[in-house]
Amino acid sequence: MISLRRRLFYTTFLIIFFIITPLLILYALGYSVSNGFKLQKTGILVIASEPKYAKIYLNGELQRDFLKQFYNKDSYKTTPQKIKDLTPGEYNIKLELDGYWPWEKKLAVWPGQSTFAEDVKLFKKDTPVSLLQGEKNISTNAKRTDILTWNKKEAAIINLASNEIQNINLGSSTLPENQDAGWAPNSNKILLGNFLIDENNQTTDLKAQIDKQGKNFQWDNYSDEYIYYTNNTGLSKYRIADKAVTKIIDSTNVGNFFAKRDFIYFLSNEKDATILNILDTQEKKISNKINLPLSSYSFINKDQDLLNLFDDKHNMLYILDVNSSFKQLKDSLSNVSKKNYWINDTQLLYANDFEIWMYDLESSRKKLITRISKKITNVAWLPTNGHILFSTANSINVIELDDREKYNITKLIETDQIKNSVLNKDGDTLYFDATINGEKGVYKLSID
Questions:
Q1: What percent of the chain stands above pLDDT 90?
Q2: Which stretches of 171-315 are assigned E, i.e. beta strand?
Q3: Is the pLDDT of residue 35 over 70?
Q4: Is 313 exposed, middle or buried (0-12, 13-18, 19+ CB in 10 A)?
Q5: Cβ(80)–Cβ(387) under 8 Å?
Q6: Residue pLDDT, tens place only, 96-143
Q7: How far is Cα 349 from Cα 357, in angstroms, rounded to an integer?
Q8: Paired sense of beta strands 387-391 and 190-192, if any
Q9: Among 312-316, 361-365, 381-385, which is the least confidently predicted range?
Q10: What average pLDDT does this structure show over 61-77?
Q11: What is the dihedral of CA 23, 28, 30, 36, to 10 degrees?
Q12: CA angle at residue 7 from 5 to 9, to 5 degrees?
């Protein structure tokens, strides 16, 4: 009897051994048995996020730690994580972390391969903080360390590191509202219409001090000491230190202009064309002239080596290499908004009313990023590589750029009457003017 039991036990053990051992070997080699009892090579998902420790959902199911769940029912897998032995196919992957907006995307897992999603950025879910009340315009300096806020009757500088607010002494002045603020290239001096705001937050009416007919006041692109302006007789240079005025161009046909190093680029209209004139200030002569279609133009993206001319009437951007003797017009882009952004020397981020595009200067290729049903009011590139910030009149959103499935869009805030939005230099805090709960003002929002 005992011998029979032993034989049964031994036989059963051998059967189990010969069944389980091959399955374990196949499992270790990355195979699984499908519903039809067919062997199938499995895949791996490697996923990581910033910040870490986000919960992972696959097709709506929270991924739990197999071993730990026996003694801790709340145990689950978090990022960074390598999830093995996944049946090949498409998975709806979702990451959740308290205090952050969820991330969700559909990714394919292939047999015998690893699918990587190691650069997932989670954005903070925060409540906007009111900094100033009332309807304002906002503008940031090039270093994105300070912003100017203003309306007709008041103005202030907000330091983005400390959020300290310094009011500007306007006296009896009335500021222009529909005017871009021109920050000096190397300091926090500002030109707002015909008003100069110095580093002590005092204002000077340049029309009253220099020329009652003066208009289009602008900085030299490389100096804080000179201001250029036009009047009915031409273009002049004003030196702040001694208030000296020097006539540069004596002509009644001077339109928009741009001063950069030893050159002044200015536009003049003739019968059938607009002429881009290039004045060499050292030689004191016109060194080049470029014919353009007759229209109204603005100089934008002034820090770029290539000249950027925007056709305000036809929403076109001309990219010019004025130093080239072979091909001065590098390219032209149509259906472009005036607010566009060079990510580097060759890649341009731009939008029109309902689309966001990327343009590569070297290949002259354009790539559609997204198309939405609401009018786009602003676009910007986030310092966290691979993300675009864009706003509409009632929302601010982030697009994640990658080559996996569709682009992921996260809505950071939804409110009313969003006009402008700017980022601090680290890209972790957003400043914007909007109406929240019926209260107009300037708000800040932490996103990282």
A1: 63
A2: 181-183, 190-192, 195-197, 203-205, 215-220, 223-231, 234-239, 244-250, 257-260, 263-269, 273-280, 285-293, 297-300, 307-311
A3: no
A4: exposed
A5: no
A6: 999 999 999 999 999 888 888 888 999 999 999 999 999 889 999 988
A7: 6
A8: unpaired
A9: 381-385
A10: 72
A11: 10
A12: 65
CA-to-CA dists, residue 379 to 310, 336, 341, 348, 357, angstroms: 17, 12, 7, 11, 10
Q: Is 156 helix (H, G, I), strand (E, B) or coil?
A: strand
- 3-state helix vs strand vs coil in the chain, percent to 5: 10, 50, 40
Residue that is written with structure tokens 């030196």 in the block: 239
Q: Which of 173, 169, 171 is nearest to 200 (CA)?
A: 169
pTM score, whole prediction: 0.85
Condensed to tens digits (0 to 9), the pLDDT of residues 336-356 reads 998 888 999 999 999 999 999
**What region does 335 belong to: left with phi over 0, alpha with psi -120 to 50, or beta?**
left
Cα(304)–Cα(205) distance, integer angstroms? 30
Residue-wise pLDDT for 239-267, tens only, equals: 999 999 999 999 889 999 999 888 999 99
Q: What are phi and psi of 283, to 5 degrees?
A: -85, -15
Residues 164-170, mean pLDDT to the nearest whole number: 90
Which tokens hold the place of 350?
């731009």
Q: How many other C-beta atoms are found inside a 10 Å radius of the C-beta of residue 106?
A: 12
Nearest in space to 120 (alpha carbons), one of 356, 437, 386, 434 = 386
Residue closest to 230 by CA, chosen among 206, 196, 264, 256: 256
Residue 31 has pLDDT above 60, yes or no: no
> Measured between alpha carbons, how far is 8 from 30 in angstroms, rounded to an integer?
33
